[in-house]
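Students often ask what a 'structure token' actually looks like in practice. Rather than answer in the abstract, let us consider Ribose 1,5-bisphosphate isomerase, a protein of 318 residues. Its sequence is given first.
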Amino acid sequence: MDSAVHPDVRETAEAIDTMEIRGAATIATAVAEALATQAAESDATDPERFRAEQRAAARVLYETRPTAVSLPNALRYVLQDMEGHSVEVLRDSVVRSATEFQRRIESAQEDLGQVGANRLRDGDTVMTHCHSTAVVACIRAAVEQGKEIHAMVKETRPRNQGHITATQLREMDVPVTLIVDSAARRYLNDVDHVLVGADSIAADGSVINKIGTCGLAVNARDCGTPIAVAAGTLKFHPDTLTGHTVDIEMRDEREVIDDETRAEIGDIEVLNPAFDVTPPRYVDAILTERGQFAPEGVATLMRELFGEGTVDPWDEPE
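Now compare that with the structural description of the same chain:
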């Protein structure tokens, strides 16, 4: 049935895979839009074929970024209520769920920003890592409250996503100091908070985020600098409730080294993991649109939101 996958779905998958589309909320929104397009433009004439096309589209999208749990959570949300005895009813249910999901994403970001802003005081300096729309939302909300916030932004190699954070904060007139990743320990005593995002949150409160987050958290704990993770419940990984481990994506070595330099150095192995896992003991708080939680409180909230685990729509037999 993959031949029936809409071209827009494949284009979205390619953009996510190459990181042209990045950031959990952006990825999730794009996925929802792609499924809505698949539904709206399907020429299926019977319900089973329509369902099979949606599952095939979901698989194409799912396989792009194994660590970014916002992606499968978006698929689950849009397809979980795909019910009906006619193509028209099924189509309406998918488009309606996708639209509702996008509205929830927008409101969740605003609510999470307010929760994070309440942790920040006037005059605080925040250290960030990589780029997180949730982190930016927290700082934006604090600025809108009239607080003066300074930011120390790690550049976050190899793709320099910290530059995106720096650009967005400067657009808010937040003073920004950009530092190389390896300088973080030197400046941790000069900041009031470390605020990072997450790609996934496991049931035990472990945080899966851009490579370098764990080292930053360990150093922050050593310095006595509090570290909070801004992550909407979209980032919760329900499969971890049943013991599933989170896959860590390995990126192309060409993000780290070009062919000419590789040839000059000689025969070497290049490893480029996109993420690492920060144990919950190094995290002070997880900030969500539902409030602030200690890492050990995540499992209870996750069960409330997702139950104990279900069969995902793209895994259902044809």
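One point worth highlighting: The domain at 112-306 is CATH 3.40.50.10470 (Rossmann fold). Ask yourself how you might have guessed this from the sequence alone, and why that guess would often be unreliable.
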